[in-house]
Amino acid sequence: MSQKHASRRSTSISRIAEIRRQDLIEAAINCIAKVGYGDVTVQTICHAAGVSRGLIGHYFKGKDELLLEAVRQVTTELGNATKLAAQDAGDNPTAKLHALIDASFSPPGFTAEKVAVWTALASNAHWSPELALLYKELWRDYRYAVAHLVERAAQESTREVNPERVALTFSTLIEGLWIGWLADPESVTREAAKEACRDYLDAVLRS
User: Fold this and answer.
1) pLDDT digit of tens for each residue in the chain (207 aa)?
2) What is the DSSP secondary-structure string of 118-172?
3) What's the pTM?
4) How far apart are CA 114 and CA 124, in angstroms?
5) What is the C-alpha separation between 140 and 98, in angstroms, rounded?
């Protein structure tokens, strides 16, 4: 076998391996959303992915590592959606904050599956050091960014606010509305959730 042919074969194998690994992650996300984090089993994941039980051990140290990676992927997708929305909103800090609200309750970042996985993360973080660390890191970075925008927006509106406290309330409000929407989407609609967040920002920042 020539070196060039061997290189192409190795690349092809690596690509197949990455596809299979991603299939397992997607299956784990689907299972978390359907049955909850604590009730996911190796069997349910493998059944959803259409693979044998032994394949998980080939790509992950075990079920817990796979589930953690599934949660990490969902939170990354949520974070990327809100960051992109803020970037597209221009330089005005208030406009960026409102763009964060829109992205927080709109696809592709906001879907029933992703909200279910986030709810699983929040509800299981207390009993899992790995999930707790992921949860804290995500909210720490998010609140820091929101606090910075709030500080800039308050300067433009001449309002005196505590940016860190506003960011804490803002992020907790969004998370609570996510959970409320998942439990009762008829009462906590997406538009109602957006308006609630907008009302809070307006009350804090209005001159």
Assistant:
1) 555 544 454 555 577 788 889 999 999 999 999 999 999 999 999 999 988 888 888 899 889 999 999 999 999 999 899 999 999 999 999 999 999 999 999 999 899 999 999 999 999 999 999 999 999 999 999 999 999 999 999 988 778 899 999 999 999 999 999 999 999 999 999 999 999 999 999 999 985
2) HHHHHHHGGG-HHHHHHHHHHHHHHHHHHHHHHHHHHHHHT----HHHHHHHHHH
3) 0.86
4) 15
5) 20
Least Cα distance to 149 among 98, 199, 78, 203 occurs for 98
Can you list the domains of the chain with their CATH numbers?
3-205 (1.10.357.10)
